[in-house]
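The records we work with from here on pair a chain with its fold. A complete example follows; check for yourself that the lines match position by position.
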Amino acid sequence: MSKASIGRQTTWVEKALRVALYTVLIIMATVYLMPFLVMLLTSLKDVEEIRTGTLLSLPSTLDLSAWSKAWGEACTGNNCGGISPYFLNSFQIVIPAVLISTLLGAINGYVISLWKFRGSDLFFAALLVGCFIPFQVILLPMARTLGWLGIANTTTGLVFVHVVYGVAFTTLFFRNFYQAIPGELVKAARLDGAGFFTIFYRIILPLSTPIIVVTVIWQFTQIWNDFLFGVAFSGFDTQPVTVALNNLVNTSFGGKEYNVDMAAAIIAALPTLAVYVLAGKYFVRGLTAGAVKG
């Protein structure tokens, strides 16, 4: 067989494999997007059309009343003000919790990886254990701690819970990333008279953009989607949107309004969806940035 024919055969095989790969990817993407499509179509129909149609049938007319009702009129238990107050509660919890846990994780990772001290490896191992402790295990001791601090059933208490539980993960991310930074860089800065925080602020932090993006996306998603801590440690007026969504779905006066439930679920998912759409490529890039050494 000639080299030309072998080359043509190889090219044909590569094209066939590429077509098969894209086919599988399209099928998997369709499977994963199907629930979202059903939710979106249902939210745009009225109740009567939902009962008489099929899940994938297109709405006869675009009806956005379910969206406005989910936002400002739907009943979540005894409160019929929609999910908008709880949506804002989630932002009041997420933003400070993400910022604080990210900053603490950056400092911890900086210390553990570039400022070795006696017992640093043991300290890091203890943090790793914290990553694998189930949520349910810390419910009772955390409830006692929040009561002792006087911040039970408050937004501040929920921020505290998420910072404490998330700092183990953020430290792990930053430590693995900083392991790839040459230690000589820190030593040279110390010889020039730079101190601990000067080196961190002027040298290490500017190099940390990829891992900061990873940590922010991770923490934002985990905290926004949390239900267990929200239902266990929040008060009636400080519940996050996930708890309100659960109350909305399980509350019905008269007939069940599936279009309102679906609209509320999509609204609750929009912030995390927006974060991944806007910064998804940086998430993957940041995860692989510290994979060479660690």
Notes: The chain has a mean pLDDT of 85.
